[in-house]
Amino acid sequence: MIIMRDNCTYGRRSIRLKNYDYSKNGLYFITICTQNRGGIFGEIINGNMILNRLGKIVENEWNDLETKNINVSKYCLMPNHFHGIIEIKFDVGVIHELPLRENDMKSRRKMLIPKLIGKFKMLSTKKINILNNNTGKVWQRNYYEHIIRDEEEYARISDYIRNNPRNWKEDRFNCR
């Protein structure tokens, strides 16, 4: 969505929670779709996702996000989308999207999750484009994120991720 700002420049409305600190301890469920929902990462055979070379690049880039303070072990790469859970193990502090200006102090956002997703999308796209000798987009512009609030929700989302390849025929991201 494009909105007009007071200074007559165009911008996009953020889908992130305005005052939420995305560097807080916690669990975050992430879904990212490929550009035009193209099935480029492999195929589902007998309920299992078989990664191709592009899928292996994405898997490696996701795993490279892991640090002693960030866990990314629960994920599922599908032909045209990706689901993962990011766990931040302790408050890592403020990370700003842009350098702060004095008059922007009220609008600062703590943006670790968006920074991680941006890094993941950028590096996987770069490596895929090098492999394909291309300069195109791999991922859609944004991503879906959900803050996991309790153990029951974590268990439900973990089951969803684990069973996603088996449920591909009914998956809303399956463009049949």
TrEMBL record:
Q: Which domain of life is it from?
A: Bacteria
Under the heading InterPro entries, the entry gives:
RAYT_transposase, Transposase_17, Transposase_17_sf
Task: Kindly give the SUPFAM superfamilies that the UniProt entry links to this protein.
Answer: Transposase IS200-like
Specify the Transposase IS200-like domain's residue ranges.
Answer: 23-164
Q: What name goes with this protein?
A: Transposase IS200-like domain-containing protein
